[in-house]
Amino acid sequence: MVIAHGLAALPAVQRLVELAIDEDLGRGDVTSAATVGASEQAATAHLVARQPLTFFGADLVAYVFSRIDPSLHVTLHVADGARLSRGDKVATIVGGARGILEAERTALNFAQRLSGVATSASAYAAAVAGTASRVVDTRKTTPGYRALEKAAVVAGGCGNHRADLGSGILIKDNHIAACGGVTAALSKAKAHAPHTLRIEIEVDSLAMLDEALACGVDTVLLDNFSPDMVRQAVPRCRQAGVRVEVSGGVTLASVRDFAEAGADYISVGALTHSAAAVDLALDFA
Questions:
Q1: What 3-state class would DSSP assign to 222?
Q2: Is-catalytic flag, 140?
Q3: pLDDT single digits (tens) 150-163
Q4: Which residue out of 83, 139, 140, 231 is catalytically annotated?
């Protein structure tokens, strides 16, 4: 029996792994069948970083190899969140060569993608270091990967926004348009929302901000504000005891400007939707 640990134990993640294995191995591995055959030829392989990166995906790497061949022995040399240099070993896999070959691409796909997210998060966290701001992700995640990508964001040093639409009330521009305005949207939210959920509203101007503050709200999301506009907005929010989130067009080059302008949170969709996969490789010893 394959024993899954950590994130790999989540049913949703296991379904994702099964899908990934099926799309790569569903019709078999004709190359390994022809060259390695059914023999239990012993092999040792190392998962190695080919660039500086922040690693994430330890549970997935171990689970994928053991799911394809339970006799494989996987030794992890680093933990999630580890900062690696080129040439650092991530894991060593010992066992049948065919099983290692069959699992290689699926394991690498998970590790490269998720380590890319963690590496992106590390860069953003470093950019705001020393300020009171925290960079957080969004729901702009790869379908099916949300739990994994959000965990990778945390491993990289940033934080999570909502996990799903049931995690919190965030009134956005289309909600406001559908309700007929800021005041109407906030009134309906307060009347119908569970008392345990905080209410956040997106505003795109200082006038909308003033209206939201007058109605009462827990957090405001300043959408596409410039750093100068954020500096104007923050004192008004502080006076009202309201937290400030900034979003929209924030880049690695500009994120510190928003942090120094006083934002409590800076949400960055690029942490997940634009993270580039890192270079990890599996080398036979």
A1: strand
A2: yes
A3: 999 999 999 999 99
A4: 140
